[in-house]
Specification:
With about 425 residues, the chain is mainly α. It has 17 helices and 7 strands. It folds into 3 domains: about 140 residues; about 110 residues, Cytochrome Bc1 Complex, Chain D, domain 2 (Orthogonal Bundle), CATH 1.10.760; about 110 residues, Cytochrome Bc1 Complex, Chain D, domain 2 (Orthogonal Bundle), CATH 1.10.760. The strands form 3 sheets. A 3-stranded antiparallel β-sheet has the order 1-2-3, with no helix packed on it. The chain is globular.
């Protein structure tokens, strides 16, 4: 077969695939949703919408640093290019002030803008589709009260051919099915409330679920942990004892972490600290507990068999000896000689799955750059981790982390100086 015929065949195959995808897509029912009558107390509806906007952490993406709230413009890095968050203030020309409640529902539930344009899934409509029509209308009522800001939204900066919105038809046919949350009759109201928040507005799987090469997640209840490539953080598993799972956490310990950023078993850091500060700390105690109850109910990973610590080579023993000396010098006052720490202010390192993750990015960044849990109403003056990047060389940092990952019964891979160096100049956000 000649090259020309091969090219023609490939073109036809692509066109056929797009055609099939289009047929599948248009075959999907686009539920318009039943309009919710305006309640007698409009103020209550707006307050409810403000609360839900907090639950969805809408401010985080739709506000650029130093910018007006919800005016958009934040550059969201993706593996495919940059998506700029749009203006969702009540400005009628550049925001969503001219959007009706139906228009707003269509965006959340079906991933379509007022003009019918398909939205890129950087906007988590695959999660927001589960939001009820009543909550969507409350959100719309709230955003119509947000101070209007005249700021035009920027177009995405994506690589060809991903900058062709027509290809979203195929993506949606493969990975998106609109569907409002339906309570599980086999579960109690608290569990269902938690599932609704985690799967929908909380869009937890956006970070905690592995994605395929097209950036799609398959299961909203799969929170098995994933690397966040453009932020260079690792979102730990929220299921069972898989890596840094929740198998040994109590509901109260998890609720404490979600609401205050610290608990007896660990502290929120990196992107999760921002989520706690801007969103979760503002939720009611009942909603926080419901989320914790739901997360604790997720299928537990099969516990791995305990294996003996691998035999170390002489050069590794030398590294671990150096790490032990550095730990004694820099860490023992807070984290104690036996690694038990003094929770919640100083987390335990012994048995801490977060320091033994297959991906070492989180402990490396914590050691080099330090950091604080979020300042919250429940923990307004958090204790922090000082940065050691200016004190330790790459070799020393690698030795210290290798020791921590293999002391007190911990079993983790050795860290190399090259791995440390990779994150030495990486910003925290």
């Amino acid at each position: 077969m000649t090259r020309k015929r091969i090219a023609v065949a490939l073109t036809l195959a692509i066109l056929l695939a797009i055609a099939v995808a289009f047929i599948l897509y248009v075959g999907l029912r686009e539920d318009a949703g039943a309009a919710i009558s305006t309640p007698a107390n409009k103020e209550e509806m707006i307050a409810r919408g403000a609360y839900l906007a907090r639950a969805g952490d809408c401010l985080a993406c739709h506000t650029m640093r130093g910018g007006a709230p919800y005016a958009g413009g934040r550059a969201i890095q993706t593996p495919f290019g940059v998506i700029h968050s749009p203006n969702i203030t009540s400005d009628r020309d550049t925001g969503i002030g001219a959007w009706s409640a139906d228009d707003f529902w269509r965006a959340l539930h079906n991933g379509k803008a007022k003009d019918g344009k398909l939205l890129y899934p950087a906007f988590p409509f695959p999660n927001y589709t589960r939001v009820t029509r009543a909550d969507s209308d409350a959100l719309h009522a709230y955003f119509m009260t947000v101070t209007p800001v005249r700021q035009a939204s920027k177009e995405p900066e994506l690589r060809f051919p991903l900058n062709q919105r027509a290809l979203l038809v195929a993506w949606r046919a493969l990975y998106f099915r609109p569907g409002e949350f339906r309570a599980d009759a086999q579960q109690n109201p608290e569990w269902n409330r938690g599932a609704y928040l985690v799967q929908g507005l909380g869009h937890c799987n956006a970070c905690h679920t592995p994605r395929n090469f097209l950036g799609a997640t398959h299961d909203k209840s799969d929170l098995s942990g994933a690397r966040i490539p453009m932020l260079d953080w690792y979102a730990a598993s929220l299921t069972g004892e898989s890596e840094a799972g929740l198998g040994q956490w109590t509901v109260q310990e998890l609720a404490d972490l979600l609401e205050t950023g610290v608990s007896a078993r660990g502290a929120a850091s990196g992107p999760m600290a921002e989520v706690v500060r801007q969103s979760l700390q503002h939720l009611s105690d009942n909603d926080i507990r419901a989320m914790a109850v739901y997360l604790k109910s997720l299928p537990q990973a099969v516990a791995a068999k305990t294996e003996a610590a691998p035999k170390t080579w002489p050069e590794e023993e030398k590294v671990l000896k150096l790490g032990a000396a550095l730990y004694e010098k820099h860490c023992v006052d807070c984290h104690k000689a036996n690694g038990t720490g003094a929770p919640p202010d100083y987390p335990a390192l012994a048995g801490n799955h977060a320091v033994m993750l297959t991906s070492p990015v989180n402990p490396i960044r914590a050691l080099l750059h330090g950091g604080y849990p979020p300042s919250t109403q429940g923990n307004p003056r958090p204790y922090g981790m000082p940065p050691f990047g200016a004190i330790l060389s790459d070799d020393e940092a690698a030795a210290l982390l290798s020791f921590i990952r293999n002391a007190w019964g911990n079993h983790g891979s050795m860290i190399t100086a090259e791995q440390v160096n990779r994150y030495r100049a990486v910003p925290l956000d």
